[in-house]
Specification:
- There is one protein chain.
- With 474 residues, the chain is an alpha+beta fold.
- β5 and β6 form a beta hairpin.
- It has three domains: 129 residues, no CATH class; 229 residues, no CATH class; 45 residues, no CATH class.
- It is globular.
- Helices cover 32% and strands 17% of the residues.
- The chain has twelve helices and twelve strands.
- The chain has a six-stranded mixed beta sheet. Strands 1, 2, 3 and 12 form a four-stranded antiparallel beta sheet that branches.
- α4 crosses α8.
- Bound molecules: zinc ion (3 copies).
- One zinc ion (ZN) binds next to loops.
Amino acid sequence: MAMVAVMPDRSDRPVLRISHLARMVGPEFRAWYQALERLGGCAGPVMLVGHTLTRDAATSELLHVFRSADLPFGTLMVACRNRRESVCVPCSLLHNGDTFQIIRSGLSGGKGVPASVSRHPRVFATVTAPSFGPVHRVTDNHRASDRCRVRRGELTCPHGNRLWCAAQHSASDPRVGTPLCAECYDYAGAVLWNASFGVLWNQFVKQIGRETAERVGVRRGELPNLVRLSFAKVVEFQRRGSIHAHAAFRFDGPDGPGDDPPVWATVGLLREAITAAGPATRRYLAGPGGERRALALGRQLDVREITGAGTDDRVLSETAVGSYIAKYVTKGDPAGMVLPRRLRHIGQIEAAPLSEHARRLMRTAWELGDVPEYEGLHLQMWANQLGFRGNIATKSRVYSTTYGELREVRAAYRRELAGVVEPKTGVVRESSWEFVGKGLAPDLAEIAEGIAEETVIRKGPRPDWIEFDRSEET
Ligand SMILES: [Zn+2]
Ligand SMILES: [Zn+2]
Ligand SMILES: [Zn+2]
């Protein structure tokens, strides 16, 4: 009897892929599928209806008509551009790539920043919040003797809770970042600090200027004629629900990135000025009943030199800094700490997937939002971010390129691909677009997910998303 060996198919790649579906059905679906593909499989595209007319700036001649009416199903789909991985994986990857480019070009050049910036003094600083009460901390698992909180002085708080903890906590331990006594923990202080961080940061940067001027022996106002300080920073939420910031700082000459700083503007001076500026940064916040709350930076201020290559405890490479920062922008928020969308009412906090500690911080933010003295902090608007308002990633004006510029370059590249020839004299665009909806029905969302799988997640971001150099020539 003849034996037939049947080899099992070891390939786990499906023979029929989601892209085949587009070929099986009609041209309108095919066009829609391609549009969705261009969005990289965005999970929640924005639907727009309207038109953009492109005219020659000099002659007003109509060069190009772009209307949603000519698009599949009569709508233009635009990617959601959400930076959060939990909301949209492909868009967060794109955002991550942009952040990396912004930080990286400010450290080693590119995207319109001269490569000579890599010779400028650069440091990477980490700024933390002060303590709002003892919390459980990650212990060093290389040291068997390392305990969470050593027993010293008072053993219990006024609520009868222990003020020490003999346990060892790994990073995944849910107790990490939670207070030893929730009744003692200064929840209001933590929220108000998050809400005031932007103001504190601005003061910190100004103080670095003052400290630099003092060391150089010039008046603060004269400093910009000698040296310029620029930075790019990202903030992240720590497990205790306080934000902290990572920032790359750079000294330039008075004309910015293309100008070499004077020889006396060294890494040592930059490091010294930042280290001195930390403790000198202080603001007062007026509260109810004439209360005055002092806001300061945490005592832990880590400053490291950024170099072209190599990484040890004292220095960090340009690439490490860029990807480190980009990673935090999309993955920074620890699970159960913040919510991606604004709250409409306090009831949403109870139902949300949050840790008890985060829930209490969020509730505090919402409740303090009713205090007239804190009106300017817009605490209810930002309660989902534990009071922190503003952007996760920010930079000073001259640091490097911007998200807007990167988007514009990308849009121009796509227009070029679409065969739109722009006259030398320039064009004017008249646009009228109306928002008609967001997101995809569940079955269509599955198709988007398939595209995201096939294009972005497996292969990494598409080359035209990250490599802008070709289109920059236009
Ligand atoms: Zn998206
Ligand atoms: Zn502990
Ligand atoms: Zn207590």
